[in-house]
């Protein structure tokens, strides 16, 4: 799979296009991705040779020679994706074409002195239970924190109580498999690049809302990670100097206002119920039932989020913004405040940007982690390092 960076990024786009839309002809691929027919012919030949694409039935033509359809070979490989949270793990078994073959949830305590051994044991148990199918290429792990390097996998995650945790090293030693570790929102961006709306965009933003607030910045087809792997900490943009305390140790961060705890604090301040809602879902139910106070909490949070999002959009100038996370289940209540604020604060030339909200379930986080592994055959920039080389070797070995 050698080639230029542009070639590798285009292979990723072809793979993702077929995985999302199904079989297409070379002419269709060229039109969808704005590529020359010669480029598509060369790149698809390489993908067929690597055992990732196959020629299918002929597509009927209204005149002239019928076009050959190309389809993705999901059986070329699979990956296990793991999402680490403050109280449990979500694991998914994902095929190369994005099809989820299975999902599991395991209890987990990141504060345990043996947390990494318990994480490895949970992954081992899941691997042992996998059904027969495509060859396993590796394990991807998404964490709510900063990761020094995908291929190293040392994690700093205050919400988990982890500082300098050697997640990647410990898992590789125990599992004897390639392991890639990444910030969970960056992992979602990798999945968007392969299977989502990012497949035809080289510059886009992913924003997540839920327990916390996050962002991933994709520029020229790559996730921007920053000098120490900590880019995208959108939740810690300062909003108010005298604002509420944030889990990071500062005051007045965006997350302190619009993360789950911020929403509940705002609801309590409005005397919503005797003791305030016990969860964001309960707050959402109150809004659904028409509670003006609950609706105001979401609208005010939406306005704060919208102003902050406009600032980020003005800085990085993406083609599209994708909003994800468990919080999108209540998006109709966020949207009135968000839409007004974000459009008002965007620079005039950017007010028509598409902001798209996608459906969500918790396995989406783990699917993002699996995408870290499934994207590595197209990683000419070397973000996956030695682990990426090992993934590619397993893929090539499986096809030989």
UniProtKB/TrEMBL annotation:
InterPro entries: ArsR-like_HTH, ATPase_NBD, HTH_MarR-typ, ROK, ROK_cs, WH-like_DNA-bd_sf, WH_DNA-bd_sf. Residues 10-54 form the HTH marR-type domain. It holds the Pfam family MarR. PANTHER family: GLUCOKINASE, ROK (REPRESSOR, ORF, KINASE) FAMILY. Transmembrane segments: none annotated. One of its GO terms (molecular function) is kinase activity. This is Putative NBD/HSP70 family sugar kinase. Belongs to the ROK (NagC/XylR) family. Keywords: Kinase, Transferase. The keyword Transferase applies. PROSITE patterns: ROK (PS01125).
């Amino acid at each position: 799979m050698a080639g230029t960076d542009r070639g590798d990024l285009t292979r990723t786009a072809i793979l993702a296009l077929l995985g999302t839309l199904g079989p297409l002809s070379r002419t269709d691929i060229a039109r969808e991705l704005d590529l020359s027919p010669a480029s598509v012919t060369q790149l698809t030949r390489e993908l067929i040779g690597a055992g990732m694409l196959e020629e299918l039935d002929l597509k009927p033509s209204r005149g002239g020679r019928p076009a050959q359809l190309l389809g993705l070979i999901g059986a070329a490989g699979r990956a296990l994706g793991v999402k680490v949270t403050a109280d449990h793990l979500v694991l998914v078994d994902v095929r190369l074409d994005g099809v989820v073959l299975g999902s599991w949830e395991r209890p987990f305590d990141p504060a345990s002195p043996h947390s990494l051994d318990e994480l490895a044991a949970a992954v081992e148990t899941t691997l042992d239970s996998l059904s027969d199918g495509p060859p396993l290429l590796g394990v991807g792990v998404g964490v709510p924190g900063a990761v020094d390097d995908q291929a190293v996998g040392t994690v700093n995650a205050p919400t988990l109580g982890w500082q300098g945790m050697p997640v990647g090293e410990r898992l590789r030693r125990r599992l004897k498999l390639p392991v890639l570790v990444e910030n969970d929102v960056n992992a979602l961006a990798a999945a968007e690049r392969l299977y989502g709306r990012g497949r035809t965009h080289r510059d886009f933003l992913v924003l997540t809302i839920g327990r916390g607030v996050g962002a991933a910045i994709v520029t020229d087809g790559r996730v921007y990670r920053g000098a120490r792997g900590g880019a995208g900490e959108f939740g810690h943009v300062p909003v108010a100097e005298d604002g509420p305390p944030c889990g990071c140790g500062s005051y007045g961060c965006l997350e302190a206002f619009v993360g789950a705890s911020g929403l509940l604090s705002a609801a309590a301040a409005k005397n919503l119920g005797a003791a305030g809602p016990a969860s964001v879902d309960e707050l959402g139910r109150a809004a659904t039932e028409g509670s003006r106070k609950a609706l105001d909490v979401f609208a005010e949070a939406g306005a704060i989020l919208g102003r902050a999002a406009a600032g980020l959009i003005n800085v990085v100038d993406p083609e599209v913004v994708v909003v994800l996370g468990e919080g999108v289940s209540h998006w109709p209540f966020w949207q009135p405040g968000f839409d007004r604020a974000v459009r008002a604060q965007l620079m005039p030339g950017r007010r028509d940007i598409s902001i798209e909200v996608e459906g969500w379930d918790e396995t989406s986080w783990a699917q993002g982690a699996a995408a870290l592994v499934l994207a590595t055959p197209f990683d000419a920039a070397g973000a996956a390092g030695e682990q990426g080389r090992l993934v590619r070797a397993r893929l090539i070995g499986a096809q030989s």
